[in-house]
Amino acid sequence: MDLRHVPAARERGWYLALMAPNVKGPNYAWLDPSRLYCHPQGLQDCVADLLQPFQGDPIDMVAGIDAMGFILGAAAAAVLQKGFLALRKAGHLCVQTLAQPYTDYSGRQKVMEIRTDTISPGLRVLLVDQWVETGGTMRAAIELVERLGGVVAGVAAICIEDSEGGRWIREHYKCSHCVPPRLQPCFDHHQ
């Protein structure tokens, strides 16, 4: 799809066609949404779709997960006129942090950190990431926010796959994603 083209009829999720398939092998995610972010209308519509279910909900802050969640999270924070908190991989913050180990979508063990001076008890945080595949990364983010006394106001991602972890997140938190129901099986099976 041409990065200048905007379809006349923009149905929900039209911008998913902007994503590129993996051409580099198994060490990479199966689909790359970063091309979507280069399309001005695609990015705007994606963020609007992610935020639509939270209209009227009390949200105090948006937190994005390192690194691709920073893009959507910062865009969502700007639209909501809220602050943005970066949840980082261990070793990138030079302030006091709280750490949480997790296993990412590829099965690698990692550690996520959150600065301890931004979330006060009761603060309502919208968590944003690019993708929820197995749920391990998002679950670590949830645990960090809740350990600091924050309240997870919701979870937003381009796709929340129908995995065990994805189902757990959907059962316990208000969620938003961009994949229309008719396409969800294709995304779950990486087609």
TrEMBL record:
What Enzyme Commission number does this protein have?
2.4.2.7
Compartments annotated for it: namely:
Cytoplasm
Q: Which Gene3D superfamilies match?
A: 3.40.50.2020
| GO MF term list | adenine phosphoribosyltransferase activity
Among InterPro entries, the record links this protein to:
Adenine_PRTase, PRTase-like, PRTase_dom
GO biological process assignments = purine ribonucleoside salvage
Its pathway?
Answer: Purine metabolism; AMP biosynthesis via salvage pathway; AMP from adenine: step 1/1
One of its Pfam families is: Pribosyltran
Q: Supply the alphabetized keyword list.
A: Cytoplasm, Glycosyltransferase, Purine salvage, Transferase
Superkingdom? Eukaryota
Q: What is the catalytic activity of this protein? A: AMP + diphosphate = 5-phospho-alpha-D-ribose 1-diphosphate + adenine
Reply yes or no: does the keyword Transmembrane apply: no
> Is Glycosyltransferase among this UniProt entry's keywords?
yes
Name one cellular component (GO) term. Answer: cytoplasm
Q: Where is the Phosphoribosyltransferase domain?
A: 57-175
Query: Which CDD domains does the UniProt record give?
Result: PRTases_typeI
Which family, according to UniProt?
Belongs to the purine/pyrimidine phosphoribosyltransferase family.
Partners and quaternary state? Answer: Homodimer.
The protein, known as: adenine phosphoribosyltransferase
Q: What species is given as this protein's source?
A: Scytalopus superciliaris
